[in-house]
Amino acid sequence: MTAETRPIYILNGPNLNRLGTREPAIYGTATLADVEAICRAAAGKHPLVFRQSNAEHEIIDWIHEAIDQGAGIVINPAGLSFTSIPILDALKMFSGPIIELHISNIHRREPLYHKSLVSQAVTGVICGLGVDGYRAAIDAILRLIGKKAK
Ligand code: DHK
Predict the structure, then answer these.
(1) Catalytic annotation present for 27
(2) Is 107 among the catalytic positions?
(3) Could you report the per-residue pLDDT of 30-47, keeping only the tens digit for each?
(4) Which of 9, 27, 46, 134 is catalytic?
(5) Which of 75, 82, 98, 138 is 20 to 30 Å from 66 at the Cα level?
(6) Taking the CB of residue 137, how many other CB atoms lie within 10 A of it?
(7) Is the distance from the beta carbon of residue 102 to the nearest atom of ligand 1 less than 6 Å?
(8) Cα(143)–Cα(66) distance, integer angstroms
(9) Distance from C-alpha of 147 to C-alpha of 31, rounded to nearest angstrom
């Protein structure tokens, strides 16, 4: 599988399946299906794998899958960002570009949301742009894998 066809993995963590009704003042009213549509539009012809889980082990299994088959990763680990050393360890094994994404500006929220453990394993972090951050993240990955002019 060449970089041409290696998909970009979009991985979403706990509670993001409730987007649309979950704390709309913080996360907006777009649903996870809306987020997937934004991602597929941003990727154009480039293949995407779009997933969400409330289970840490599933997210780790998908990072392992991306290690073997993916060109890049966009990950919103949600609450696991601040607790999961296993997700950090898994991301460290990925050789391609990784964008950590948060819909909200975590640095403007309660202190428990300020220190993401996974940031030390990623290429870049996007937060506070709402769900439009997913479009910016995919755009960045496409440039980093040479699929879009810098
Ligand atoms: C989503 C969550 O579920 C929170 O635990 C994070 C992140 C922020 C987001 O903004 O997408 O703190």
Answers:
(1) yes
(2) no
(3) 999 999 999 999 999 999
(4) 27
(5) 82
(6) 28
(7) yes
(8) 18
(9) 28
